[in-house]
Write a structure and sequence with these properties.
By secondary structure, this protein is α+β, with helices and mostly antiparallel strands. The chain is built from five helices and 16 strands.
Length: about 270
């Protein structure tokens, strides 16, 4: 009898947790980690600038400081899914997770790009369940279920292959389609996608500060059925003394910040 009661308690707890997750908004963030290299020279691409002898004098102390800074941003957002761009390899991703207070699982793929920088996805394993992952030059697509909603999350950097994949998924209509990253080449007037960051941009927001003001360099696109709006994760402690995103380098000068980009995020309700 005691065993039956214990099983019933476990089942009830699981059902309750699933119900709570279903009522919570499903938050997804995208953060450009701004060239988060380790300190070791690569055999496959030229990263000599990010070594102790390179022009940026990239050493262990600077690396660990940046790892801790990126992890602090991830923790402060407290979202079940955080996509990262600009991480050099899987060990870098593991180092970030080791510094996070939250218990994140991760997906990483080597993209074989010229600069050696990859995408990674940090996620809570009790909220996001991954079916499969596809990757190509400058994109990574994650298929799965987030809080029981079937989704495909596509991370991209100017990728025409990612646009074709996203278009196919939006036409099929079987999953919620979320595209995050540099989407300048996407057609948002063709009826398949909507720019979820457009309202924030119209309000004067952006995730990068250029010479002509704040600009939305990274964007969130969704299928046209999904009406959620995206925004910028802007906090004073992410800015420097001149209210710019606190970058790691200003030119060749080491500034000690996290990234020259602010995170963007979306809640799917």
């Amino acid at each position: 009898m005691r065993t039956v009661i214990s099983i019933a308690i476990v089942i009830y707890a699981a059902i309750s947790a699933a119900g709570i997750a279903a009522r919570q908004p499903s938050g997804i963030a995208y953060y450009d980690a701004d060239r988060l290299y380790d300190t070791l020279p690569s055999l496959f691409y030229d990263d000599r600038a990010y070594t102790p002898q390179g022009k940026y004098k990239w050493n262990g102390n600077r690396y660990l400081r940046k790892i801790g800074g990126i992890a602090a941003v991830v923790d402060s957002m407290a979202l079940p899914v955080v996509a990262l761009y600009g991480v050099e390899n899987e060990q870098v991703v593991r180092d970030i997770i080791d510094r996070c207070g939250e218990d994140y699982s991760y997906v990483h793929r080597t993209l074989s790009t010229r600069n050696g920088l990859d995408f990674a996805l940090l996620y809570w394993g009790d909220r996001l369940f991954i079916d499969r992952v596809e990757s190509g030059f400058d994109y990574m697509a994650i298929y799965g279920s987030l809080d029981s909603r079937r989704i495909v999350l596509i991370l991209c950097r100017y990728s025409s292959a990612a646009e074709r994949l996203a278009s196919k998924e939006a036409q099929d209509g079987d999953r919620t389609v979320i595209v995050m990253g540099r989407t300048d080449n996407f057609d948002t007037k063709g009826g398949l996608f909507r720019d979820a960051t457009a309202a924030a941009e119209t309000a004067g927001m952006g995730n990068a500060l250029l010479s002509n003001g704040w600009k939305m360099l990274d964007r969130v696109l969704t299928d046209t059925v999904t009406r959620a709006e995206a925004s910028v994760y802007a906090r004073q402690w992410l800015l420097d003394e001149r209210n710019r995103p606190a970058a790691t380098f200003r030119g060749r000068r080491y500034a000690g910040g996290r990234s020259g980009r602010l995170p963007i995020y979306i809640y799917i309700r």
